[in-house]
Amino acid sequence: MNKSIKIWLNYTIGAAICALLLYTIYGQVRQQATGMGQHLWVHTGPSWLLAACIALMLLNTWLESYKWHTLVSWAEATPYRTALASYLAGVAFSIITPNRIGEYPGRILYLGGRNTFRYINISVSGIVSQLAGIYTFGLMGLVYYNFAFPSPLAKAALAGCITINILIAVVYWRFDAWLPVMEKSKYLRRFAVYGRLMGRVSAANRMRVLGISLLRVAVFTAQYLFLLRWMNVELPLLQGFCLAALFFWIMAVVPSLALTELGIRGTVSIYVFQHFSANTIGILAATGGIWLLNLIVPSVLGSILIVRMKWVR
């Protein structure tokens, strides 16, 4: 196959996938906007709160793209622009996958090259570090929730969160300690490569990636709190932050499809914040806003970038 045919095929396939994703995103946003109604967006608070949310969206995007650039650099020297584009493409792919599991495969697919297996291994580090951030802040939210609104379900959730936090810490920091055991198992042997790769990454670099993940969770939790206040959902600052962190932890635990998760998000948000506010409309609007800013906007940009991907090499 000559070069001109490859270029033609790449642009044709990329444009088709881009159009499909954009059409799907448009349909979902239109459906959600119609369902919520325009009255959700009236009687909002000071405009600086919305401006702060947009600024935090940009900061959130930069933090995740910087973290991804740090990770892929462990496998291969990669320009930041390429890492940013692959991150946005991954968000676009995540739109049509359960619990957004297609995000990292989408990033790797965009990067291409001969280091796919290395990218898969460092992706595990990115996923685990982000889970560590969500579960750490989720633990904080669950501790507060158990003190403020104790129940058997809340206690069970707290115990489960503590257990998972310990497992995440073992996987992230002490994965290499399990290598001898994993090497003896035919099934687990394939995962031992991750441990060997992480063994070559310094503790300082792993700490930096974990720190970025924790900071990112703090950023979009604060962003959600600002959106709630912009929609006149009155919440105490500290308690509101804990509940917002709890919301994101629940969303990480509950299975969902990115394009249909707004309905689930709305149900969860009302359940979490009902103890402090009866402003259901404001809660739903803020939940829709965080979905729009942090998922839909990047996915639109990523869909456009998919046109440039090399599908045929």
TrEMBL record:
Membrane-related topology note: Multi-pass membrane protein
What is the top-level taxon of the source organism? Bacteria
Q: Which UniProt keywords apply?
A: Cell membrane, Membrane, Transmembrane, Transmembrane helix
InterPro entries attached to this UniProt entry: L-PG_synthase/AglD
Q: Which Pfam families match?
A: LPG_synthase_TM (PF03706)
Residues annotated as transmembrane: 7-26, 46-63, 122-144, 156-175, 207-228, 240-260, 280-307
Q: Chief subcellular site?
A: membrane
Which compartment or compartments is the protein found in? Answer: Cell membrane
**Record protein name field:** Flippase-like domain-containing protein
